[in-house]
Write a structure and sequence with these properties.
This protein has 527 residues and is of the alpha+beta class. Helices cover 30% and strands 20% of the residues. The strands form five sheets. A seven-stranded antiparallel β-sheet has the order 15-12-14-13-17-18-16. A five-stranded antiparallel β-sheet has the order 5-6-10-8-9. Strands 1-2-4-3 form a four-stranded mixed β-sheet. A hairpin with a 2-residue loop joins strand 13 and strand 14. Bound molecules: dihydroflavine-adenine dinucleotide. The site of dihydroflavine-adenine dinucleotide (FDA) has 32 residues, from strand 3, helix 6 and strand 10.
């Protein structure tokens, strides 16, 4: 009881400016009228428009996030075509107390870029950035400016075609948006060599919580520029474009794939992989996808097949790698192949990588962990055999080490650096026909509980881009978000020091929390 009182007292005392009040229907109409004075009407869709629902679901892949019981639709969706439209939306929103949610690729694991989890909660508008997707490559500088409505597939394609020999470290899935992934870090198969996507941001432009255009990092100041490179999307403003450092890639890279069932030694192989993968050469990344008691080793080597086969045979003989397990291809082909597999043989790369339309898949729930001490063979055996009933459970293990272990935890808000062996993403998929879709995941929760003693602790780490609302949602007391409540997941995503710094920056740049969602960073007053 005493601790609850303390938390509430902290929540009341911790802030200095009241947040905007909840919008009323008249505010909503005034907001829409305000938009109509500065934005062409065809760029503002309300639920009465036949195009509204198709646009709303256009980038949603996860059926769990469109189930009526869990969705609260936006007041309108605006599709800006320039920075002044984005500024106008924020200014109208502030004036009439309508918050916004911003969507780039729409892959947020809890759908926070386009839905509110509170049925009949406060009105909000969605800014869908899909029309702002230009990529301007500057080959002689090895840099590129990319607008945040672009997907990573589009970024890869434009970079590799304008500047062969250059690439960019980001996601395996090419429909992820550069707005969200870079805001939260960005892990992928080149991170051991070149770091996170966010580690390779040189500059940015954004619209702040006052609707001002901050054209570069100088206009933002060091703190805000630090916060947007890994502090999570939807917190500090709307990033319009990133300036990226492009990285060298050889003319041919190698894709290598080996599958092992339990009978073929999968458990031993994964047990060894845990400490081997983080110390392999930086230009070799070997991830593991475990599904149906089978381990699928997939790798990227920034070099040729014969070298990687020799390395794997000497360092990881248990996999029994032969040259038949690998394929050489260009880096651009690789970005498509790792995701689409042999389908790339029949289709032009632009058709695969520039196609941002997604199909609504099954119901999905994700969680994440970081492992700092290798699990025993006995523990892995239990994990491989974890019962999942009719559901499908998948574990994706991404190795750290390499340059990730040499970057300080304070360089940007992403804290999972030197002591980490690998990241685990838990993915549970189900078809939703059971109980009309209103069922809760079961495999993921019990396995996640079982893993508690084996993963990082104090706090148990999690990756902000694998957002998980099971860790909690913000509590708003007297119009302000409680820092003590938010710490529960904030420190898990960012570490204690980085989370505190993020909250202080929030207190400086968005004290009244115009940008607020279920897990947004709360503002702390500057002392
Ligand atoms: P979305 O548009 O939903 O945005 C996510 C968050 O960022 C929201 O809070 C949103 O408001 C905010 N945001 C979006 N644009 C913004 C902008 N311009 N300015 C400020 N805030 C903005 N991750 C990874 O690191 N490596 C990987 O390989 C993958 N692979 C992957 C595959 C699949 C199928 C999924 C569903 C997800 C991943 N992810 C991932 C996770 C992914 O990085 C994470 O979900 C990102 O937030 C998605 O970014 P989007 O722009 O697509 O999402």
């Amino acid at each position: 009881m005493a601790s609850i009182a303390l938390v509430l007292a902290f929540c009341f005392l911790g802030f200095f400016v009241p947040a905007p009040s909840v919008a009323s229907p008249s505010n909503n109409n005034d907001f829409l009228r305000c938009l109509s004075t500065s934005i062409p009407s065809q760029l503002v869709l309300t639920p009465s428009s036949p195009s509204f629902t198709p646009l709303l679901v256009s980038s949603i892949r996860n059926a769990r996030l469109v189930a009526p019981a869990t969705a609260s639709p936006p007041l309108c969706i605006v599709t800006p075509t320039n920075a002044s439209h984005v500024q106008a939306i924020v200014r109208c929103g502030r004036r009439h107390s309508v918050r916004v949610r911003v969507r780039s690729g729409g892959h947020d694991n809890e759908g926070l870029s386009y839905r509110s989890t509170t049925p009949n909660g406060e009105a909000f508008a969605v800014i869908d950035l899909a029309k702002l997707h230009a990529v301007h490559v500057i080959p002689h500088e090895a840099t590129a400016w990319v607008e945040t409505g672009a997907t990573t597939g589009e970024l890869y394609y434009r970079v590799a075609t304008a500047a062969p020999g250059l690439g960019f470290p980001a996601s395996v899935c090419p429909t992820v948006g550069v707005g969200g992934i870079i805001s939260g870090g960005g892990i992928g198969l080149m991170m051991r060599k070149y770091g996170l996507s966010a580690d390779n941001v040189l500059d940015a432009s954004m619209v702040d919580a006052g609707g001002n255009l901050l054209a570069n990092k100088k206009a933002m100041g060091d703190d805000l520029f630090w916060a947007i490179r890994g502090g999570g999307g939807g917190n500090f403003g709307i990033v319009l474009a990133w300036k990226l450092r492009l990285v060298p890639v050889p003319p041919k890279v190698t894709f290598l794939k080996v599958a092992k069932t339990m009978d073929q030694g999968a458990v031993d192989a994964v047990t060894k992989w845990q400490t081997l993968a983080p110390v392999l050469p930086d230009d070799l990344s070997v991830r593991v996808v475990i599904q149906k008691s089978q381990a699928n080793f997939q790798s990227l080597y920034l070099g040729n097949c014969s070298t990687v086969v020799a390395t794997m045979r000497s360092r990881f003989p248990e996999l029994g790698v032969t040259s038949a397990d690998c394929k050489e291809m260009s880096w651009l082909q690789y970005t498509a192949y790792i995701y689409f597999g042999d389908a790339i043989n029949n289709k032009p790369l632009e058709a695969l990588l520039l196609n941002r339309s997604t199909t609504l898949g099954p119901f999905v729930k994700n969680k994440s962990d970081y492992v700092k001490k290798a699990l025993t063979k006995e523990t892995w055996k239990k994990i491989f055999l974890w019962p999942n009933g009719a559901r499908s459970g998948q574990l994706i293990l991404e190795p750290h080490g390499g340059i990730m272990g040499r970057i300080s935890t304070a360089k940007n808000p992403f804290p999972h650096r030197s002591s980490v062996l690998y990241n685990i993403q838990y993915v549970e998929l189900w078809n939703g026909k059971e109980a009309g879709g209103n069922i809760t995941p079961n495999w993921i929760g019990s396995l996640y509980d079982f893993m508690t003693p084996y993963v990082s602790k104090n706090p148990r780490g999690a990756y902000v881009n694998y957002r998980d609302l099971d860790m909690g949602v913000n509590k708003v007391v007297d119009g302000v978000t409680c820092y003590e409540t938010a710490k529960v997941w904030g420190e898990r995503y960012f570490g204690a020091a980085n989370f505190r710094r993020l909250a202080k920056i929030k207190g400086k740049v968005d004290a009244t929390e115009y940008f607020r969602n279920e897990q947004s960073v709360p503002p702390l007053p500057l002392k």
